[in-house]
């Protein structure tokens, strides 16, 4: 198994016996290999595994998701015929806690990943198609420019209130003009990329056939659903952090359900605004929202359900490859 603490990668030589022997935890024969997180480093890792009499097709590499830093290694290993699984770091942390492991070192982390793979057998990761990765990169760049633009606008407002010098105000104005131009440019690139790919263009049209799903929400969901494989609408909702976590045990613990905190707040913010619109103009979401309010649910709780409903509708149109049908009866 590979543990992906950047910038090194470690692979214990005992992983094959770990997968096949229930008593692997008792094994004291462990070897570790550290290589650079680069194509040459991954090639060195594969060569080292071959010297241990292990073929690439026999390898099951398990790594934690580390932003963008795991992607190069994951793709390189996959192209070499290795089975790759990418795990949420929080899941590994909770798994180690469940085993009673509190020590955190490189060797222990690698062992925990190996145990996780042997016991849970995580599914194989498949690299997303190039067009989806390009779209994701363009959307991330647009988000960064929008944030920079908002920060400059805030500075402009403060400079006016503070009666800053003309030079400072002009500098901020120039920066805002530049960012607006960059935002227009990146939006054109996003549109051209989608229009130049028939599958992306077709799926975008399907998503935008849903009332309340506009340009921002459709492109964000398009990227997510093309980057990852979801077997159900519930999986997509859970990935986006829209499934509330309940805390209840007997009569002593009656916690209010809350939503998991993940790194997709910007998508959830867009979906929130879409849900607000959907409660008025989308027949399915409107019916659900009004039904929940009639049951005594709070508006925020009902809006959370509306967000999930929108995501389910988005999953449905791409799954069936049919446009949204207002007359469709819910099961």
- How many domains in all? 3
How would a crystallographer describe the biggest sheet?
Answer: 2 strands, antiparallel
Poorly predicted ranges (pLDDT <50, ≥5 residues)?
1-27
The ordered string of helix (H) and strand (E) elements is EHEHEHEHHHHHHHEEHHH
Structural class: mainly alpha
What is the CATH class designation of the largest domain? Alpha Beta
Mean pLDDT: 84
Strand content: 5-15%
User: Any idea of the CATH topology of the largest domain?
Assistant: Nucleotidyltransferase, domain 5
Any guess at the CATH architecture of the largest domain?
2-Layer Sandwich
Q: State the helicity in percent bands.
A: 55-70%
User: What is the end-to-end distance?
Assistant: 43 Å
What topology, given as strand order, has the largest sheet?
1-2
Oligomeric state of the chains in view:
single chain
Please characterize this protein's 3D structure:
This is IS110 family transposase. Pfam families: DEDD_Tnp_IS110 (PF01548), Transposase_20 (PF02371). There is one protein chain. With about 325 residues, the chain is mainly alpha-helical. It has 3 domains: about 10-120, 2-Layer Sandwich (Nucleotidyltransferase, domain 5); about 130-195; about 215-320, no CATH class. The protein is about 60% helix and about 10% strand. The chain contains 13 helices and 6 strands. It has helices spanning about 15-20, 40-50, 70-80, 90-100, 105-120, 130-160, 165-195, 200-210, 215-225, 235-240, 265-280, 285-295, 300-320, and strands at about 10, 35, 60-65, 85, 245-250, 255-260. Strands 1-2 form a two-stranded antiparallel ribbon. The protein has a two-stranded parallel sheet with strand order 3-4. It has a two-stranded antiparallel ribbon with strand order 5-6. α3 links the parallel β3 (about 60-65) and β4 (about 85). The longest helix is centred in the middle third of the chain and has 32 residues, at about 130-160. The protein is globular, with a radius of gyration of 24 Å. Mean pLDDT is about 85; it is low at about 1-25.
């Amino acid at each position: 198994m590979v543990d992906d603490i950047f910038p090194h990668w470690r692979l214990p030589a005992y992983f094959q016996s770990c997968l096949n022997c229930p008593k692997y935890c008792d094994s004291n024969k462990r070897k570790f290999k550290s290589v650079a997180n680069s194509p040459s480093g991954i090639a060195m890792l594969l060569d080292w595994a071959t010297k241990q009499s292990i073929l690439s097709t026999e390898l099951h590499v398990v790594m934690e998701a580390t932003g963008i830093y795991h992607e190069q290694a994951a793709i390189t290993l996959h192209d070499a015929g290795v089975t790759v699984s990418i795990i949420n770091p929080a899941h590994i942390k909770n798994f180690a806690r469940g085993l009673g492991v509190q020590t955190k070192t490189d060797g222990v982390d690698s062992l925990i990943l190996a145990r996780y793979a042997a016991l849970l057998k995580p599914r194989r990761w498949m690299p997303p198609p190039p067009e989806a990765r390009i779209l994701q990169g363009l959307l991330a760049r647009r988000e960064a420019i929008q944030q920079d633009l908002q920060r400059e606008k805030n500075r402009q407002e403060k400079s006016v209130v503070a009666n800053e010098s003309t030079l400072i105000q002009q500098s901020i104005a120039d920066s805002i003009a530049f960012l607006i131009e960059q935002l227009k440019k990146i939006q054109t690139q996003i549109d051209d990329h989608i229009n130049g790919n028939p599958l992306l263009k077709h799926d975008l049209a399907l998503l935008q056939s849903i009332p309340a799903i506009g340009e921002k929400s459709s492109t964000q969901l398009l990227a997510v659903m093309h980057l990852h494989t979801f077997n159900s609408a519930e999986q997509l909702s859970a990935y986006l952090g829209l499934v509330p976590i309940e805390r209840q045990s007997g009569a002593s613990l009656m916690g209010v359900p809350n939503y998991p905190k993940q790194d997709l707040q910007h998508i959830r913010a867009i979906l929130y605004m879409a849900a607000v619109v959907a409660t008025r103009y989308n027949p399915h979401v409107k019916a659900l929202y009004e039904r929940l309010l009639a049951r005594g649910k709070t508006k925020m709780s009902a809006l959370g359900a509306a967000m999930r409903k929108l995501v389910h509708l988005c999953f449905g149109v791409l799954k069936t490859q049919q446009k949204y049908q207002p007359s469709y009866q819910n099961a």
